[in-house]
Amino acid sequence: MTREIKVEKRVLSRNDVVATRNRVGFTERGAYVVNMISSPGTGKTTILEATLGRIVEAGRSVAVIEGDVQTENDAVRVAATGVPVEAVVTGGACHLDATMVGKAWQRLEPSLPAALDILIVENVGNLVCPSAYDVGEDEKVALVSVTEGEDKPLKYPALFNAATTCLVTKVDLLPYLEFDVEELVKNARAVNPALNIFLLSAKSGEGMDEWVEYLIGKAKDNS
Amino acid sequence: MHEMGIATEISRIVLEEAERGGGGRVKSISLTIGRWSGVEVETLRFAMEVVAEDTSLAGAELKIEVVEPTFKCAECGKEFIAESRLTPCPECESMAGDMVAGDELAIKEIEVED
After folding, report:
1. Which of B3, B6, B8, B9 should we substitute to test contact with A (largest number of A Cβ atoms within 10 Å)?
2. What is the pTM of this model?
3. I want to staple A134 with a disulfide (CB 3.0 to 4.6 A). Which of A19, A49, A89, B1 is the partner?
4. What are the beta bridge partners of residue A173?
5. A126 within a domain of the structure (yes/no)
6. Based on the structure, what is the number of domains in chain A?
């Protein structure tokens, strides 16, 4: 005999439950949490290093959860800045999910100050899959570099639509490229009119202060 | 690209629901997948075959309903299927529309056989 069973469940419902639990933990410590997402090679880690330095200089506390498919190279780079960091090596998975981030958070917690201002999650380099997984963040930050195409937001609308902020990286290279920044901004706004957009370069420092100021403005002052 | 993880999650939920519903072999799984959910249907079918092997899901038919990206115009209320997020409302040409369907990824129902 065949029986029909109504399920009516979102496939990622368990991830959402864990993400909610993560969010409670982050909130208890007072942290504003950003989930940085981009394709490989956009400069996430370089921007992250430059961002961390400025947050620390401003006298605010910050920690990092660093995702990579293989190697802890990026986590080692972040650790060199002196900021508490926990690596997640996904071992092949193309995104971080709420469970991976939750476990990294548990490992990270003993090294954190009682109140943490900002937690930055650097996702695995991928423009598609990470946007489907809530890890408990307050906002998703999409990064795109000027060595990529101006139509990236149109090709990967799910990410740019889910993101609150977009960082356009490597703008120090603009004089050497035929890249139309206005076209990129237009495309990004077409997909998500409310997107905050920062043009920046970790190398020249251009735009970095504005971005960090925005981030610190979002964070609760726990000092 | 993350279809393997999605397939694992579907298999977990379906086995749980089948067990809760009295157990048995799963004959079919009905899924609702939005065109813009980020999931490639053919890749998911392949991933489900791999994941289902040696479980009571093996051989279960996957009934997949693909939902087209549907927007509701914020100006005139017209609902329309969009080719991209830049598709204007066909009625009033407004660009201000909210997505109401097309990014879902859900298990609707399953059929279980004794």
Report:
1. B9
2. 0.88
3. A19
4. none
5. yes
6. 1
H or E segment to which residue A163 belongs: none
CATH topology of domain B3-68+102-113: hypothetical protein PF0899 fold (3.30.2320)
* Min Cα separation B108/chain A (Å): 4
Q: How many whole angstroms separate alpha carbon B31 and alpha carbon A216? A: 42
Chain-chain contact of A1 with B37 (C-beta, under 8 angstroms): no
Question: pLDDT for A84-124, tens place per residue?
Answer: 999 999 887 889 999 999 999 999 999 999 999 999 999 99
Least CB–CB distance from B111: residue in A2, A8, A13: A2
One-letter amino acid of A55: I
Residue A3 lies in a domain: no
Q: Which residue of A has its CA nearest to B17?
A: A7
φ, ψ for residue B58 (rounded to 5)? -55, 130
pLDDT per residue over B6-42, tens digit each? 999 999 999 999 999 999 999 999 999 999 888 999 9
- Cβ-Cβ contacts under 8 Å for B94 (sequence gap 6 or more): B73, B74, B75, B76, B88
Q: What is the CATH number of the domain that holds A106?
A: 3.40.50.300
ipTM reported for the complex, 2 dp: 0.86
Say which of A9, A93, A129 has its CB closest to residue B13: A9
Q: Is B22 on the interface with A (CB under 8 A)?
A: yes
